[in-house]
C-alpha cells in the first residue's frame, strides 16, 4: 500500500518549474499559495521514493532562497537524499545541505561518512559536490576527520578535482590548523604546476592566507617571484601582486627585488585590471622605489584622463594611497583633480574632494576653500554637505594649525551657514564657540558675524542651522564688549521671529540678553562714577569708547526693549524659557526702579550699581576649551572600588525603594501621594546602632547593614558623619576632595609661531599634548594557531639541518634507526602481514609530509 502511494505521488508530483509558474500566476494571495505548496512539500518529502523526496527538497530549497521559508526541519531528509546513488538526487541534497546547515545543525555529524565516501568516489563530479559542500559547511570536526581525504585529492591526476581540493584547503586550515602538517607541503608543490587553473587556485589560496598573517609566508617569496616573472595570466599575476604587497611591507629587501618585474608589467600593453594592481602595489608597498613610483604616477595620469568613469575613479583612488607619503604626485595632477569635482559620477567627485583636501596647507587654504564653496553652491544635497564637512575637518585639524587669518575663517563659517543645502549646523556652531574660546583676536569678528547670522531670517526656519544660531547667540552675549552697540545685539536676540526656534535655543537667547543687559548697565554706572572702575582700566580703547557711549536715555531704551520682548515669554509653557524670562524681568524691574529714583535717592543708584557689579562678576570669568580626556585625568580617591558587584542592592533594599501610596486616596499625586522613602536607609542604620540591646532587627535591615559595611563608599554619608573625625583627630573627608575636571594653566597655552603671511597668526589656546584621544590597541590575532603551524612547516627543515651540524652523532643514530625500521617493514611484508592499501598510503603520506618540510632558499641575498 505504501509503495502504491509513493508511486501515485511521483506520478502526480509537481516539479520545480510547475511551482515557479504557479507563483508567477498569483497576482494576489502569493503567501497563501506558498503555504499550500509547503504543505504539499511536507507530505511529499516523507515519501520512501528518493526521487519524490529529492524533488520536494528542491522545491523547498527554492522557496527558502527566494521567499525566506525555513527549511531547517528538513535537515534529516537532505541527508537521506545525499545518500542516493543517482547523481541528480545527490546534487539536490548537497545543495540543500550547503544552503541550510550550520554549526548548530543536529544531524551535521551524520554526513561525515557520506562525505568521505563521495570524496573517495571514482566519479569526479561526485567528488566535486562533496568538496563544494565541505567548503561551505566545514566545521572543526569535519575538517579534522576529512583532512586525509583532502590531502589525497591534492595529488589527484584530475585537474578538475585538484583545483577544487585546493580551494577547500582554505576552509580546512581555518577550522583545523593541524591540517597544515599534512597538506601544506603538497599545497606548496602545486605552485610549480603548469596547469593555469591549478596555479590560479593555489595562488588564490595563498593570497587569502597572507591577508591573515603575511609574515609566516615570507619563505615562499621565491616561488611567488618565479610566478611573477614567468606567468602571463592576468588573474594569477593580480593575486601574486596582492601577496607581494603584503610581504614587501614586512621585508624591505623584497621591495627592491620585485620592483623591476612590476615595472616590466606596467610598460607592457597589459589589461587595465593588471595595470591598476601594479600601480596599487607600487604606491602602497614600493613607494620607496623612485623609478617604480614615477612610472606608476605616469600611468595614473592616463587613468585620470580616460573617458571611462571607472578608470578615473581608480586613478583618483591610487593618488589617495600615495598622497600621505608623496604629495608631489597629487600636486602634479591638480588640474585633473579639480576637474573631477564636476564629474557626473558621485564616487569620482568624492575621491577628488578627498584628494583636494590632502593638498590643503596654510598657503592655499583660502584658495581651495573658495573653489570648494563655489562647487558646494551648485551641487546636490549630499555632495554639498560632504564639501562643507571636508573643509571644516581640514581647517580645524590640530587646533586650526593651517589657519593664519581667523577673521577670514570666521567669515567663511558664516558663509557656509547661508549655503542652501547646508546641514552641518552642529559642526559649524561648535567651531564658532571653539574659536571664540581659543582665539581672543577673533572675537570682534566673531561677534560681527554672529549678529549677521542672528538677523538673517532664512536661518530661523531651517532646523539644521539652529545650532549655528545657538552658537551665535552665545558668542554675542559672552563677548558683547566687542560689539559696536549692545542695543543692536539685544534687538537681534529679542526679535519676534525667534518664536520659530525650539525652547532650548530660546533659553540661550534669553541668557545672552541678560549678559548684554548686565554689561550695558555696568558700563553705564562706570561712566557715571568719577573714579574709573577696573572694567574701564583694563579694557582696550575700543571697549572704553563703548563704555562712555551709554547714557540714561540709551539705557532706558534698552531696558524697555528687553521688558517688551520678554513679557510674552514669562507665560510660556516651557519651564526653562519661562524661568529665565522671569529672572531677567525681575532684575530689569529692580534696576529700572532704582534708576528712576536717581534724583530723589542717590543711595538707590549705589545699591543698583552694587547689584550690577555682582552680576557682572558672575559672568566675568572667561571660559576655556575642555579636553576630551579631562575626566580621565581626575584621580580616583584611595579605597574607592568602582568595579564591585552591586546587583544584590535591589534585593536588599527592596522594601525601602518601593513607592509609598496613600491608602485614603484613589488618585496619585507626584508630590503628595507617592514618595520614595530613601531617608529610611539612614534612619534604619541609626536604629540598628542605637538598639543593639533590644530585639533583633529584621532580616532585610541586617542585610542592608551588611551591604553598607561592604560597599560603604557607594552610600551618601549622613549629616553627622560628614564632619566626623577619626580616632586620631584627623578629618576624614579626603575622599570628597575631587580636583577640578578641567583646569587650564598658563603653561598649557602653546601659541603658534608667526607664519610667512602679511598678518601674523594669533594666539590659539591649546590643551596639553596628552589630551589626544587614545586609540585602543587591536586585539590579538585569531589566526595564531594557523600561523604557528605554517611557520613550523616552512622552517622545520632548516632547524633539522642546524641540529645535524651541531650533533653529528645524533644524526648517525637517527640514520641507523631509519635503516632498522626499513628492515622491519620488509620482514613484515615477507611474513604476509597485510594492511589496508588506503590506510598505508595515508600513513606514508602523513609521515612524508611531517618529516620533509619545505626547503626555502633565501633569494634576497
TrEMBL record:
<dbReference type="InterPro" id="IPR016024">
    <property type="entry name" value="ARM-type_fold"/>
</dbReference>
<dbReference type="InterPro" id="IPR011989">
    <property type="entry name" value="ARM-like"/>
</dbReference>
<dbReference type="InterPro" id="IPR017105">
    <property type="entry name" value="AP3_complex_dsu"/>
</dbReference>
<feature type="compositionally biased region" description="Basic and acidic residues">
    <location>
        <begin position="797"/>
        <end position="822"/>
    </location>
</feature>
<feature type="region of interest" description="Disordered">
    <location>
        <begin position="718"/>
        <end position="861"/>
    </location>
</feature>
<dbReference type="Pfam" id="PF01602">
    <property type="entry name" value="Adaptin_N"/>
</dbReference>
<comment type="similarity">
    <text>Belongs to the adaptor complexes large subunit family.</text>
</comment>
<keyword id="KW-0813">Transport</keyword>
<feature type="domain" description="Clathrin/coatomer adaptor adaptin-like N-terminal">
    <location>
        <begin position="31"/>
        <end position="585"/>
    </location>
</feature>
<protein>
    <recommendedName>
        <fullName>AP-3 complex subunit delta</fullName>
    </recommendedName>
</protein>
<keyword id="KW-0333">Golgi apparatus</keyword>
<keyword id="KW-0653">Protein transport</keyword>
<comment type="function">
    <text>Part of the AP-3 complex, an adaptor-related complex which seems to be clathrin-associated. The complex is associated with the Golgi region as well as more peripheral structures. It facilitates the budding of vesicles from the Golgi membrane and may be directly involved in trafficking to the vacuole. It also function in maintaining the identity of lytic vacuoles and in regulating the transition between storage and lytic vacuoles.</text>
</comment>
<comment type="subunit">
    <text>Adaptor protein complex 3 (AP-3) is a heterotetramer.</text>
</comment>
<feature type="compositionally biased region" description="Basic and acidic residues">
    <location>
        <begin position="766"/>
        <end position="777"/>
    </location>
</feature>
<dbReference type="InterPro" id="IPR002553">
    <property type="entry name" value="Clathrin/coatomer_adapt-like_N"/>
</dbReference>
